[in-house]
Automatic annotation (TrEMBL):
Catalytic reaction equation(s): alpha-D-glucose 1-phosphate + ATP + H(+) = ADP-alpha-D-glucose + diphosphate
Domain of life: Bacteria
EC number annotated for this UniProt entry: 2.7.7.27
Keywords of this entry: ATP-binding, Carbohydrate metabolism, Glycogen biosynthesis, Glycogen metabolism, Nucleotide-binding, Nucleotidyltransferase, Transferase
Domain Nucleotidyl transferase: 10-263
Protein name, as recorded: Glucose-1-phosphate adenylyltransferase
Biological-process GO terms, alphabetical: glycogen biosynthetic process
Gene that this sequence comes from: glgC
Stored Pfam families: Hexapep_GlmU, NTP_transferase
Gene Ontology terms, MF aspect: ATP binding; glucose-1-phosphate adenylyltransferase activity
Involved pathway(s): Glycan biosynthesis; glycogen biosynthesis
Keyword tRNA processing listed: no
Native organism: Natranaerobius thermophilus (strain ATCC BAA-1301 / DSM 18059 / JW/NM-WN-LF)
Amino acid sequence: MINNGQDWVAMILAGGKGSRLNELTSETAKPAVLFGGKYRIIDFTLSNCRNSGVNTVGVLIQYKPFELNTHIGEGRSWDLHGTWSGVYILPPYTEKNGVCWYKGTADSVYQNLEFLSTYNPKYVLILSGDHIYKMDYQKMLQFHIASQASVTISVMEVPYSEAHRFGIMNTDNKGKIFEFEEKPQQPKNNLASMGIYIFNYDKLKEYLEKDSQNPTSTRDFGKDIIPQMLANEERLCSYIYQGYWRDVGTVKSFYDANMDLLSSKPFLKLDCQEWPILSRSSSYPPQYISETAKVRNSIISEGCHLEGTVENSVLSPGVTIKKNAVVENSVLLENTIVEQNATIKHAITCQNCHIKSFASINQENHQEPVLVPQNTTITQETKLEEVLT
């Protein structure tokens, strides 16, 4: 097993703003958004690295980095600290005329070639920090080596009706990629790119340096690097992933992924000891569930104080549900308070929301969950449409 931190290095792209998540990312980077109660979205990628034996990880940050930086720290929560391992926060470089922001996914790695050269790895694993999934990168690496590829791209089958939303890899019967189509209107197959790549380091460096000299490039892996490698007839192979995977890039997909955790047969098990999802420890006290509380099919995090009814919901740390309050089919983020006789159904509340007595948030008859911005107070007299505009 490759596990000394020198043969492969992971680079996690974690600088995205996540604008389609609206208020969820107004004050924090998308990878740092709370998910599944106690976790942050990036915990899944970091845990996959740890569980796969990837011990050297660079995290490329940009948008509102403080909370993400604080959460990751030195990587101790994921056992990614020590003589032959480490997590390194890699912001954009600062130039004399100001900050040189990452111009795209490929540029973010290009700006950190000096970091990679420190380890001079054989292989570089490019990952996204904002996907929910469990994956053994070791198996993908073994496939990459056996295929003698310059780059291997993880793909998964999606419904043909949704294939136009993805980058589609057209392959031969042995998995060799011969064409890449970015969000085609009439896709030729349904193998969608997951944005997970394993590059031979020498090839990655070569193409990033060439791309940096191209004035017309958008500095993106999918739009620029991969097409250029195909044009040069490099060997690109597809690795088919068949597990659970979600890009929580919209409010609805974020909500749906949380609800997936509550399924009678969950697509993604958080209590799997063989492949644990790890996170930074909370300083909250234990949860308290009073004799008046009624809790059914829900995730209740530490620091929660429950006196009311909670059903089919996910509660982050520090949530308070007072007596006779009702929370159903909802995701409540950190330190939300729901007062007596208040009702929340089919909603997401951001951090530090306060739902006053007899107030009601009820989106049961709507396809999209309602999203309440952080630090919002909802009273019985509040016109919800005014708060959400």
